[in-house]
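Entry details:
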Amino acid sequence: MSNKINEEELEKLSNQQSIKARLLSDIGAVEAQKHELLHTFAEVVRESRKLNDELEEKYGKITVNLEDGTYEKIIEENGQAD
């Protein structure tokens, strides 16, 4: 007689292994997507900094109202607008 688990136990064990394998695959896919999103986010941040630098060069230090495009000069600590 061989050492063998019963069919119900084998089915449970097999199902658990399948679920774990599928979850690991899903985790890998999510991590790959996360990696891509982080690169995209970094690119947007670079573009935003570039635009902010361009706006500062043109208008000085300002705060922009994103709803209507109006802006206000930022007052430096010495009390003067840039």
Notes: Strands lie at 62-64, 71-73. The longest strand covers residues 62-64.
